[in-house]
Amino acid sequence: MNRLANIIRALSPNCKEAVRLQSEALDHPLTGLQRIGLRIHLALCVWCARYGKQIKFLRAAAKQCDHDHTPGQSLSAAARARIKNRLQNGKD
Amino acid sequence: MQAENEFTDHPKPPGLSDPDQWVDLYGDYLFKYALARLRDPAKAEDAVQETFLAALKGGKSFGGRSAEKSWLVGILKNKIFDYYRKASREMSFTDLDFYAGEESDRFVADGPGQGGWIHELGPQEWASAGESLDNELFWQTYRDCSGKLPENVAAVFNLREVEGVASKDICRLLNISDGNLWVMLHRARMALRRCLETNWFAKR
After folding, report:
1. Span B6-90: which CATH code?
2. CA distances from B171 to A41, B144, B178 (A)
3. What is the pLDDT of residues A19-49, one digit of tens each?
4. Which residue of A9, A55, A63 to mutate against B (max B Cβ within 10 Å)?
5. CB-based contact, B49 to chain A, within 8 Å
6. Is B26 helix (H, G, I), strand (E, B) or coil?
């Protein structure tokens, strides 16, 4: 029993490592061993489990922010005129 | 990412509007798109101008099916990638200073339980997070929080999370190592999560 506990302890990351691993899992595949260790930790740690859900939420928010929620800063009148002018010249 | 040949990659849809109208029709939209990514109005204006010019040059009709706006956005995206590629030759996109502590004051420093969250300081439950996405005040908070990311970290975060560019392509584009990329992304997420929790979710 002690030996098993030691193996589990060796396999699973602590919270600081677990949050880093969850972040990296969003960017590249983890190794099989990393995944197993992380799963064990997440089953036992409600804070790290929340962290993982929350950074996934951030990803969804980042995508949606771009589509609907950037505030209206428009082209200045000067820039607009300049670009139109440049396009006219570009056509010749 | 493939080599940019914007004319085969972006066949011009048939029946396009007159280029004279493009600036009025699409200028603001393209500008906002570029500004969100380049964070500098002058650079964003240049990118929009370059986009229209490139679109003008590709004036032959290839009979493509993509909508006019998406076609222009596609060209703009490539212009933005070009900007990043050029910038990475003149400056380093690596930023290992931002959030370097990685909230170590919220983890047990030593002894048993070392590296574990200090209980009261760990991530809180975010009640009905999904509903926040319908709230304009949330988006204001989100923009404030992501605005706090320093420029290079923000660029990397945008490329990965908004554009969905793969890690190895970001590394190639910006000439940074994958290890450094992942560290920057981890810290950006940590900082953003903390900011949103403090300024939004903790107050619900």
Report:
1. 1.10.1740
2. 30, 27, 6
3. 999 999 999 999 999 999 999 999 999 999 9
4. A55
5. yes
6. helix
Q: Which of B12, B90, B13, B93 is nearest to B54 (CA)?
A: B12
- Among A14, A74, A68, CA closest to B31: A74
Which tokens in the block code for residue A18? 């677990």
Residue by residue, pLDDT tens for chain B (204 residues) are: 444 454 455 655 555 567 778 898 889 999 999 988 888 899 999 999 999 999 888 764 444 445 788 889 999 999 999 999 999 999 999 999 999 999 999 999 999 889 999 988 999 999 989 999 999 999 999 999 999 999 999 999 999 999 999 999 999 999 999 999 999 999 999 999 999 999 999 998
Q: Where are the domains of chain B?
A: 6-90, 104-203
- Architecture of domain B104-203 in CATH? Orthogonal Bundle (1.10)
- Residues of chain B with Cβ-Cβ distance to A65 below 8 Å are 139, 142-143, 146, 162
State how far residue A13 is from chain B, nearest Cα, in angstroms.
9
Q: Which residues of A touch B45 (CB under 8 A)?
A: 75, 79, 82-83
* B117 phi, psi to nearest 5 deg: -60, 135
Domain ranges of chain A: 2-70
